[in-house]
Specification:
mainly alpha, globular
Length: about 450
Amino acid sequence: MSRASGNAAGDGKRINDEERDGAAATKLQEKNPVKKSQMDPFGDESNAHIKYRTMEWWQAGMIMIAETISLGILSLPSVLATIGMAPGLILILGLGILATYTGFVLGQFKLAHPHVHNMADAGEVMMGPWGRELFGLAQMLFLVFVMASHILTFSIMMNTVTSHGTCTIVFGLVGLVLSLLCTLPRTLLKVSYLAIASFVSIIAAVMITMIGVALSASSPVVVATRAVPFSSAFLAVLNLMFAYSGHVAFFSFISEMKVPQSYPKALFLLQGADTTMYLIVAAVTYRYAGSNVVSPALGSTAGVLPKVAYGVAIPTIVIAGVINAHVAAKYVYVRLFRGTDRMAQRSWSSFGLWALIVLVLWTLAWIIAEAIPVFNDLLGLVSSLFASWFTYGLSGVFWLFLNYGQYRRSRRKMALTVVNVFVVAVGAVTCGVGLYASGKSIAAATKDGTQGVFSCRSNA
């Protein structure tokens, strides 16, 4: 009896201790509440109507491939025509290796700070509230500019397929509406199935282009190296960097993976696929099209083949832009509803706000596409302003932040410190010089009447 009483007393004491500890924890949480921006973006999904963390690593890899291997690959043959075969291929391989490393660093930063869902969150981790606003604004501008490049390519495609059947502005509006409709699903898992169609589409389109130029080639002029003005050469390098500019969305992709730790598999799938395709497509197309290759490269063939190639490329032209739009809209959506259960609801208000965000972003992208209607110049401007930092420079900053105070701990750390300082320097130099080169090219194109802003003239 006394033993039972003692056990009951012990159990009661243990319960009281647990209650006291729980109350203390609650008071501590109330005293130091977790910031809304530092909460997991999707919270507890056990009872959620819409679940976001649903992607396997290969699905994330396919989205990354669809986002990255799209418009960038279409400008690479013209890059070789500008600077020559040898330096062009060396740069494609070198930038691909560097992009693999910087992508890996992004994964390390995400695992160290699991709440990071976008570049704005990463900016807040390193520099507080103003860093969040700076990085968030830069990410949104970059993504909207990329969306604009897809609308521009859509109008080029429609002008080619229809032989300039109507005003180019109308084609841009058609691209806007189609892209908007495809961006309405709220989860990346659904978009990942579209990504597979996008990848098949770009493979088929570039195959048609390579076969077409090979069969129609007469005596193409191909050079190993070429002396060109500095601004033209640097603009070509910027177009190469744009081909690896998917890093801005990687935090968002990792956040919707079932197992974020498997991200390196998705990264290596992407980098193996894109670097290999870039080398083959750029070399083969330039070899047979020569100095007459155009950008986008799908227009380098003769006869009806450009129409066929562009027709086959429609899925990748639209879907790759949709992926970037999804990431941009999700940034705004998460920022509005983080820490609530609104994102997980199937309500008209939740979906209506998502649709409104998507509409505003695609409208802004259309305006930019009509204002800067020269494909290579738009890519150059986007790359110099943003890809230089998001794909390269900022990854070096992330590594230096993660390893602060350990730079000289070992020879390996010292070597990696040098590498990442170099990465930051690449981003800074590319940004500054690239703005000059792309700005000069855009000014020349509009001054000589090559293509006017908000023009009905064909841009094919």
